[in-house]
Design brief:
By secondary structure, the protein is of the alpha/beta class. The chain contains 10 helices and 7 strands. Strands 1-2-3-4-5-6-7 form a 7-stranded mixed beta sheet. The longest helix has 28 residues.
Length: 273
């Protein structure tokens, strides 16, 4: 089975609409997919409609920003109920937080980098109901203030830069409780990206498992280590591309190596349900 349990649409910071994302997944032969936009479930209904009567099984999902020991960690909720009232209220609060952060970044870019930050922020807010730093990075590139998305983050949006604002997301305990109540499988997204020592990462995974976490996301560049970490913590492995843009050729939908024999797969567990 070709699966992809981590994808984004225009409901957050992807460039394809939910329906276009489904069409792309079908063209790639994906059979099981979750739409996991940042802090919103707004695209799930239209994605489900596009997937109806096709070979693609679509799961409602979300990617929630949360804090663990002061560090931002992204938790996926796979197979959630998009009508869960507490989760919907949580998303509304996060959206308001993101809007305020975008405005604050615009102010910093204006005052500290001498860029038209307020205008950039206003444009991003007008065009995107749920603004992310990726939207600001794209706007910086489009207006010639950065050479690329990575350059925008490195010089203007990332830690130590003129536009950086420290994250202040809800605690991981809050996030886990909301996902349990919404009936989803909780997954730690892209564990290899977090700048954690080996011991800290093991502590995170242990606490996550005790709180009802289901899996960690595998990484093609570090798949053996992810499998070992998952096994040690009693977690399954989840396959997700973190797909945003079809122009990024190295990050295609369903782009994974096969899991090692004996590896516990979240997709297999879901498929058996």
């Amino acid at each position: 089975m070709i699966v992809d349990l981590h994808t984004h649409s225009t409901a957050s910071d992807g460039v394809l609409t939910p329906a276009e994302l489904v069409a792309q997944a079908l063209a790639a032969g994906v059979e099981l997919m979750a739409l996991t936009d940042h802090d919103t479930m707004a695209g799930c209904e239209s994605a489900a409609a596009a997937a109806r009567d096709t070979p693609l099984e679509l799961l409602a999902g979300i990617e929630l920003s949360t804090l663990w020991r002061g560090r931002t960690i992204h938790i996926l909720g796979i197979g959630i109920d998009p009508g869960a009232s507490a989760l919907r209220a949580h998303c509304q609060a996060l959206c308001a937080q993101r809007i305020a952060r975008t405005e604050a970044i615009g102010e910093r870019l204006t005052r500290r980098a001498r860029l038209p930050g307020r205008e950039l922020a206003r444009t991003v807010l007008e065009e995107n109901p749920l603004p992310t730093r990726a939207h600001l990075a794209r706007a910086l590139v489009a207006q010639g203030h950065a050479r690329s998305i990575s350059d925008a983050f490195a010089r203007l949006l990332g830690p130590g830069s003129a536009g950086h604002i420290a994250d202040d997301w809800p605690a991981i305990e809050t996030t886990m409780a909301l996902l349990r109540d919404a009936g989803g499988n909780a997954v730690i997204a892209h564990p290899s990206r977090y700048r954690l020592s080996a011991g800290a990462l093991r502590s995170l995974l242990g606490e996550f498992a005790k709180a009802g976490g289901a899996a960690i996301e595998s990484d093609n560049s570090d798949a053996e280590r992810c499998a070992r970490l998952a096994g040690d913590a009693g977690l399954a492995l989840s396959l997700g591309s973190d797909f945003h843009d079809p122009q990024i050729k190295w990050n295609r939908l369903g782009r994974f190596d096969k899991l090692a024999p004996g590896t516990r797969s979240l997709a297999r567990q879901i498929a058996r349900c």
